[in-house]
Structure formats: C-alpha cells, structure tokens
Amino acid sequence: MGDSLFEGLPPPSHQQQSQEAEANDISETTKRQSSPVPAPTKPALKSALKRPKPVETKPDPEDAAAEKVSASGKRLRFKTTTDASEMQVIEAMKKIASHIKTPTKFSKASKLAIQLIQAGSIKPGTSDHFFAILEAAMSSTTSCTEPSVRADYHALFSAAQDAAECLNMKQKNQLATWTIRAVVANDLFTDDSFVFSKTAGRVKDAITDLPVATKDDDIEEAASLNNKAATPDDFSEREDTTSGAETEENKKDESDPFGLDALIPSTVKKDERAKGKKDMPAMVRKEEEEEKKRFLKSQREALIFCLEIAARRYKTPWCQTVIDILVKHAFDNVARFTSCQRDAIEKLWASIREQQMCRKQGRSVNGKLDVNGFEWLQHKYAGEKISIRHSVGGSGDRRASQWLG
C-alpha cells in the first residue's frame, strides 16, 4: 500500500470542481457587497467601580426660584430674598440702640442685633451705628452679669467678634474690654467645671499680658479718684464759663475795635497753619498714647471685676482649687496693677489664704466641720472595737461565742 490515503479512489469529476469554484466566488462577492468596511468591535463592559461618574447638570439659580405658569401662559416669579438698603439698616440700628437700654426690652433688641451681624449688615458704612448699639447696651442701668440678662449679653458680645474687623482701633479696644465683662465674667458663673477652669485660664493669660504699672499710672488713678470725689456745682461751672467768654469778647473788642483784622490778610495765620501741619504727627502719637493708657486702665478694671466674681464662688467645692491658683497668680503679678488695685488683690489673696487654712483644719468657709462621707465614717469607727473573729462579736464582747458554747 502507498502512503496516500486517497490512492485507490477515483479522481473528482470536472463538474464538481466547477460547482465548488462558483460557490467560492459567490461567497466572496456577497461578503464584499454586504460589508465593504469592517464593523468596529464593541468595547468590553467595565465594572461599575471603573466607570466614570456621569456629569450632573446643576440647575440654573434663576430657574430654581419659585416659578409658576398661569393658564394664560404668563410667568409668576416669587422673590425669596429681601435686600435692605444701607439707610434701612441704619434706621433699624438706631431703633435697636434706643430700645436696648431698657432692661425689659434688652433680650429682644439683642437678638435683633445678632440677626444683623449674621446677615452681614455690619459694614464700614454702618459700623459706627453698630458700635452705638454696643455702647448703649453697656451703658444700661442693669449690670451685664445680672441673671436675667446674663445669657443675652454673652450671646451679643460673642457674636460681635465677627464684626470687629469693621471697627477702628479705638472701638476694637473698647469691644475687647466689654467682652471681658460680658463674656469672660459671665462664664465664671457656669456650673461646668471644665468651662470654669478654661475661663480662669483666660483671665490668667490676660493678667500675664499686662505691662508693669508705672508711677504715672498711679498718679492718674489718684487724680481720677480725686475728680470723682470732688464734684463741683453746676451753677459755679456755668458762672466760670460765662465770665471767661465775656473776658475773651472784651479782649477782642479792645484789640480790634473796628473789625478790620478779618479783612486784612495776615502772615500770622499762615504761620499757624504751617505749624499745625508740622505738629500733626506729634498730636497723633499723643492721641495713640492716651488711647493705650485708657485701654490698659479699662482692661485692668475688667480683670479685677473677674477676680471678684471668682472669689464669690469659693463656697462651691469644685471651684476652690481653680480659684486658689487664679488669685495666687494675680498676687504674684500684682506689679502689673495700679496702687488701689494692688490693695484689692492683696486683700483678696488674704481672704483666700484664710479660707485655705480653714479647709486644712477640716472646716468650711462658714466655719462648720467640712468632711466628706469617708472622713465621717472614719471618724465614727475610730473608737469602735472590732473583733478578730470577723462577724462574731462585733463589739468585741464575745457574747456570740458564749452563746454557741
């Protein structure tokens, strides 16, 4: 046998070969006509984690406004925000300033002022009128630490910190002093030990930041106390002012009886103007120094006010350690205060030390025995006889053992 498998088979006929060739030609032509361009292959589907997120189209703010279409096809727009003009804001601030002085109206007026702050109505054009509100609030007959208005003062001056950028330097200093009285001092009335300790730390930091008091500060303090003690009569002041005005008018009449000096241009006025321009920087520096002294004076008074409030809370047991540290810190930095304030701090520290001695002796601020539950039980069972047989014969008389035989 040969190697070929088709060796014994007859050769293919000519007709079969022609049919196969025609079938191949038809298939090729149909392929060319049906698909002249090869179809692109479809990409494989990605998982949901790898697919890009569809871009969300944000609605137009104008279309988001409340709109309705009536039956006639007209659009009805509803205005959702109201923009008050600067004059309207100023008028509102004037009304608030007039009502905030009244203690019964303070709560409502302070909330309206906070709404103006939150709405962003405090601007350079309205900052003076807003400061007038704060000034009227602090000039009220009611103290900012009264229980009825304590929370409202705290909220108002806490919110006022957001509008401090629009104030000038003098107003910022005054606001800082008022904040110590209205916010820091009111935080010392809290029932939260954490808040009380944190507030005492703020007072300590403020005391540390004070400069050392000078002799000029003591002299100014003594002069201000003398001015307060000696109140002159209004009638005498009026007489002095009227007599001074009359003497000035007489001098003018004698020097210029016909009033010709006003018509003749003189070089003296020019010299005075030039001198005034040269003295402007010196005047500005003098005003800045006076403002700095006034700010330090009011800041020291506010911190003394906080120390007095803290000392009143010494009866509360969990406040005592914090108050000891606070008053001791003020006593160590007593040189940063003026003479009268130094005396007040020394007296305050003396009273705190006396109360500390009472605590060490086991007595409270009221003089009564100050012991806790453990100390009371310790004192009670100090003289009791305890048996070595535990519960048998609690008083040590062995009655139970005798009864048991």
Structural summary, described in words:
This is Nucleolar/coiled-body phosphoprotein. Residues 1-73, 223-261 are annotated as: Disordered. With 405 residues, the protein is mainly α. Among the domains are: 86-187; 190-225 and 294-370; 376-405, no CATH class. It is 60% helix and 1% strand. It contains 16 helices and two strands. The chain has helices spanning 14-34, 61-64, 86-99, 106-118, 127-138, 150-159, 169-187, 193-209, 215-229, 234-255, 267-278, 280-312, 320-332, 339-360, 373-380, 399-404, and strands spanning 67-69, 75-77. Strands 1-2 form a two-stranded antiparallel ribbon. Strand 1 and strand 2 form a beta hairpin. Helix 6 (150-159) packs antiparallel against helix 7 (169-187) and helix 8 runs antiparallel to helix 12 (280-312). The termini are far apart.
Q: Spans of 5+ residues with little confidence (pLDDT < 50)?
A: 64-71, 78-82, 232-239
Summing up helix and strand content along with how strands pair, one would put the structural category as mainly alpha
Average pLDDT number: 75
Work out the strand percent: under 5%
Order of helices and strands: HHEEHHHHHHHHHHHHHH
Cα-to-Cα separation, first versus last residue: 129 Å
